[in-house]
Every structure is written in C-alpha cells, then in structure tokens.
UniProtKB/TrEMBL annotation:
A Pfam family reported for this protein in Swiss-Prot or TrEMBL: BetaGal_ABD_1
Family: Belongs to the glycosyl hydrolase 35 family.
Catalytic residue list: E157, E239
Name of this protein: Beta-galactosidase
Residue stretches making up the Beta-galactosidase 1-like first all-beta domain: 374-488
Catalytic activity annotation: Hydrolysis of terminal non-reducing beta-D-galactose residues in beta-D-galactosides
GO molecular-function terms, A-Z: beta-galactosidase activity
Tree of life domain: Bacteria
Residue ranges constituting the Glycoside hydrolase 35 catalytic domain according to the UniProt record: 10-329
Species this chain originates from: Trichococcus shcherbakoviae subsp. psychrophilus
Length: 590
C-alpha cells in the first residue's frame, strides 16, 4: 500500500511526486483496447491516467445499474495498475466531457420540479442512491487500501455553472460517507471568478485549473487564488487541452504538434499536468454531447478523436512523438518505450444484401404505446435515439397544413408514408402543407434526439426533453389519439428485409462481409445522408453528410471471423448499393 498526500507539493510515500497524467475515458474505448491505450500512455513516460465516470451509463434506467463490459470501471483501473499507472477518478454526477447531457441520466428529466446540479434535496437523494452503488466499486481501488487511485474530484467545473456551496458540501460529505480517503479536489477555470464559485477551500479541498495555453499566466492566477485563501498548494492543470472536439457542419479543429509540446513543457516546468485528451476515442451509440448556442444547439460528431496524442483508433500521432521528445529533454532519466500500433483493413464495394422501409417493420422493432396526446421521449421511458409518432387524420379540405409544436431535435413529417418536410430546431413549428386523400390519412412524425447539451445554462432548459413535448396541430386544433414507437437500438434487432421498401423513406440497409482476419476499419458513409450504423448489432454511432466526418470507426473487436452484418438505418432517403471499409477516416472539406 502507498500513501498519497497534498501539502505544499504532491507527496507519494512522503516523497515529492509530479503528476504526469493523460485522460483516457474507458467508456469511449472498448475493453479489448484499454490495454493498448494505457500502454501507450505509460510508454510516453507518464505515470497517471485520469478518467471521468458518467452517471448515465452506470444507471441507464432509474434503479438499474451496469458496471460490466464497456462500463467496467474497475477492470479499466486494474489494467492501469498492472502497467504501473496511478489513477485519478472524477466521479461527479455531472462530467461535461462533450458527453450526452454531461453524463446526467435523462430519466432525471421526468422529475419536473427537481433542479439538477443543486442542493435540491430530491437531486441529492438521487445522487446518493447512485453513489451507494458506484463507490462499492471504486472505493476499494484507492491507493491507501492497495489500489492505484490517488485522487478523486468533487463535481466538475462548477464555477462555470453555479455557486451553491451547500450542493458542493453535500457531494463532499457523500464521498466521505462512501469511504473516500484519498485527497479530493475541484477542477475549474484558473481565473478567480470560477475558482471562487466552484471551490470548497474552507474544507481543505485542493483547487486545480483547466487551460490549454499561457501556462505561466494561468498558474499565476491559480497560485494567487490559493494564497488569497491562505494555502500553499501544488499547482496542477487538471485539463490541459491538447486539441478540441468537433461539431457537425464545422471544420475539423487541429493544433500544431510542436506548439503543443512547447506549451506542455512550460506547464510542466511549473506544476503537474493532465493532458485532456490523451486518447479521445468514440461517442458510440447516441452518446455525443451538444453545444448550447442561442436557439439552435450544435450537436457534436461521433468521433471524439480530439486531435489528441493518440488518434481515435488509439495509435500515436505527430503530437505523441513531439511530446515524447520534449519529455525526454525535460526529464532525461524518464523511462520511455516504443508505442503499440494497431493495424487497419480496407475492403471496397461490399454489396447490398437487403433493404426495407421503417414503416414496414416498425411493429416488429418497437412496442406501441398509446396516449391521447404525444408524449416526450422521457415520458415514454426512452432516453436516446428516435421516436416515431403516428396518428390518423381526416381530410377537411383539398389543401391543409400541419404544425409540430415544441419538439426536439429534428423531425421528418409524413402523410400516408410520403415525406412532406424535414425540420430542424429553428424550423420546428412552421407550417407543413399537405393534400390529404378522402377519408383516413396516416400521419407519421419521426423525431431524432441529436444529443442533449453537456455544458451551460441549457442543462435546465425544456429543450433537453426530447421528442414532441406539446403536440401536433391540424389547422388551429391539436390532433389526438397517438401511437408511439421508441427506437433506442440498445438490443439486437430482428429485421425482416423481405418486406416492402419505399423510396425516400427512413429505411434499413443490410450488407454482409466475410472476414478471415478482422482488423480495425472505418466505414465510409459519404454515399449516405443521415443515420446510424450497426455492426453485428452494436450501434457504432451517427453519421451525417454535412460533415466534417464522413466515416465511422469500427474497432476490431466488433468484427468476427466469418460473416459480419452491417446495417445502416438512414433517414433522408440517400443510400448506396455498396459500402466500403477503409483503413483511415474520411473527411469532408468545409
């Protein structure tokens, strides 16, 4: 067992210890690849790995917990320990991290009068129950009981959100109650306003700063804040931003490798550093976050490559080698090794095996739920994905118009299975003109949740409830009697591809490829419009032809020797008779 302390320096077994850390999120990297990423961190000469812990994957439904497979946090930490790495855990209820709803579970939104990220007793009650399960797993991993965990964080960048000290104290007390004995810290912007709002210095909780440049100025700000509270704490950048995340329809963001190495060197000459990110990984499934911007929010892409030292696949980049050279110059005695590199494969023109319209198979894929008025996703016990809303309307005149009132995020509107409109955030609510037939007409609205915001005041906005929140109007009245189908794609699908397919309708496209020796690959999506890809039943994430990414990463472990099924669910009516696997990602010039 070891002892880790915070005094005027970080001390490991009473000796000064400079934290050389990199962020790797276990939930963005499949378990088969954890060793690869962690080894490459250790090979660079680093001594610590940091990870957030997202509440929404560990309690996906209220009262149902998952700490296995992709979300086996203990397994990830133990591999780090085997490689000789220490671990920093950030088990905040909220993590930001460009992750769906900042890691908060969407089922919290069903509690209308509860205020998240606050001292609201109901919110604290929900956190406390989750912590009962979480800390059963992570408390035994602490360094003073034989594990590798040296520090844990309370909340996350709270100074950029609130100043509810009762809330921070409640979380701190919950952590102590759960047996946390390693030092606890907060993480905020380095300037005084965020430090003051987001910290608990009166409880001797270390404050750290987040930045990606101007280390001297930022560390000086942090030092002055410490001194204003009578503290002589070590300086640490808990998130040294070495790249950045990407949004749909925006250019890829890059940073010069040597510029990064120089800036990290400046930081390491003053204090300790955690590179955010070291390996970004992938927002598999529907777990991408969303940036809050005015009326129109900006969802982030599936790839969380982040322009990090390891690329999305986990292989070293130019940044990795620039950092390696700098580290050896700064710390001549540091132990470094050659990094591991994974192979990729390329297969062109995999033929289409089948196609079928969503409307033909919807009753096989989802349970029908009936209500007088349409309900938002969360009220349907759905968190993510798509919801199909269906009703029947009579013809009242030759030309009519409909309006979808208060819905998020993106809708396709159909009458008798013919698409009449696609509306995105700023268009939802506009008139949709139609020419119904005599008698009954089938009205369908497919709504896609494109990701809840992960940062800022909109965490509290009504728009974080997805689906149709108010209703659908015909002329001046609300339509009643709705059927609702939830499509979360969390379970293997049994799709009958012999049923009818219709042009310009949301559809499933099936491809089959036989592999003798599977490797990593990128599925090229440039010939498709918008949707998701399932590889042997696993949802690898969203694609969209607006770019900047036009491919999706597939880890080797999702493939198998022999026959592999790739199913594309596409909503725009843009598809291809073939797909291809590539050895490198594909980008759109924006």
């Amino acid at each position: 067992m070891s002892k880790f302390e915070i005094k005027e320096d970080f001390l490991l077994n009473e000796e000064p210890f400079k934290i050389l850390s990199g962020a790797i999120h276990y939930f963005r990297v499949l378990p088969e690849d954890w060793y690869h990423s962690l080894y490459n961190l250790k090979a660079l000469g680093f001594n610590t790995v940091e990870t957030y812990i997202p509440w929404n994957v560990h309690e996906p439904k209220e009262g149902q917990y998952n700490f296995s497979g992709q979300f086996d946090i203990s397994g990830f930490v133990r591999i780090a320990e085997e490689l000789g790495l220490f671990v920093i855990l950030r088990p905040s209820p909220y993590i930001c991290a460009e992750w769906e709803f900042g890691g908060l579970p969407a089922w919290l939104l069903t509690y209308k009068n509860m205020r998240i990220r606050s001292s609201d007793t109901l919110f604290i009650e929900k956190v406390s129950r989750y912590y009962d399960k979480l800390f059963e797993v992570i408390s035994p991993l602490q360094v003073d009981v034989g594990g590798p965990v040296i520090m844990m964080q309370v909340e996350n960048e709270y100074g950029s959100y609130g100043e509810d000290k009762e809330y921070l104290m409640a979380l701190h007390e919950l952590m102590l109650k759960q047996g946390v004995t390693v030092p606890i810290f907060t993480s905020d912007g380095a300037w005084r306003a965020t430090q003051e709002a987001g910290t608990l210095t009166e409880s001797d909780i270390l404050t750290t700063g987040n930045f990606g440049s101007r280390s001297k100025e930022n560390f000086q700000d942090l030092k002055e804040f410490h001194e204003s509270k009578g503290k002589k704490w070590p300086l640490m950048c808990m998130e040294f931003w070495d790249g950045w995340f990407n949004r749909w329809d925006d250019p890829i963001i890059k940073r010069d490798p040597q510029n990064l190495a120089d800036d990290v060197k400046e930081a390491l000459e003053i204090g300790s550093v955690n590179l955010y990110m070291f390996h970004g990984g992938t927002n598999f499934g529907f777990m991408n976050g969303c940036s809050a911007r005015g009326r129109k929010d900006l969802p982030q892409v599936t790839s969380y490559d982040y322009d990090a030292p390891l690329n999305e696949q986990g292989n070293p980049t130019e940044k990795y080698f620039a950092l390696k050279t700098m580290m050896k110059q700064l710390f001549p005695d540091i132990e470094q090794h050659e990094p591991l590199v994974k192979e990729s494969m390329s297969i062109r023109d995999i033929p289409l095996a089948g196609k079928v319209s969503l409307f033909s198979v919807i009753d096989e894929l989802a349970e029908k739920k009936v209500s007088k008025y349409p309900k938002p996703m969360e009220a349907l016990d759905q968190q993510y994905g798509y919801t199909l809303y269906r009703s029947n309307v009579n013809k009242d005149s030759d030309e009519e118009y409909y309006r979808v009132i208060d819905a998020s995020d993106r809708i396709h509107f159909f009458l008798n299975e013919n698409k009449l409109a696609t509306q995105y955030q700023e268009d939802v609510g506009e008139k949709i003109y139609a020419y119904p037939k005599s008698g009954d007409n089938q009205l369908d609205v497919l709504v896609e949740n494109m990701g809840r915001v992960n940062y800022g005041h909109k965490l509290l906005a009504d728009t974080q409830q997805k689906g149709i929140r108010t209703g659908v109007m015909s002329d001046l009245h609300f339509i009643t009697d709705w059927e609702q189908y939830s499509l979360e794609f969390t379970k293997p699908l049994s799709i009958d591809f012999d049923k009818a397919w219709k042009e310009n309708s949301p559809s499933f496209y099936q491809y089959s490829v036989t592999l003798d020796a599977p490797k990593d690959a990128y599925i090229n999506t440039e010939l498709f419009g918008k949707g998701i890809v399932l590889v042997n039943g696993f949802n690898i994430g969203r694609f969209w032809d607006v770019g900047p990414t036009l491919s999706l990463y597939v880890p080797k472990s999702l493939f198998k020797e022999g026959q592999n099924e790739i199913v594309i669910f596409e909503t725009e009516g843009i598809w291809s008779d073939t797909i291809s696997l590539a050895s490198e990602p594909n980008f759109k010039k924006i």
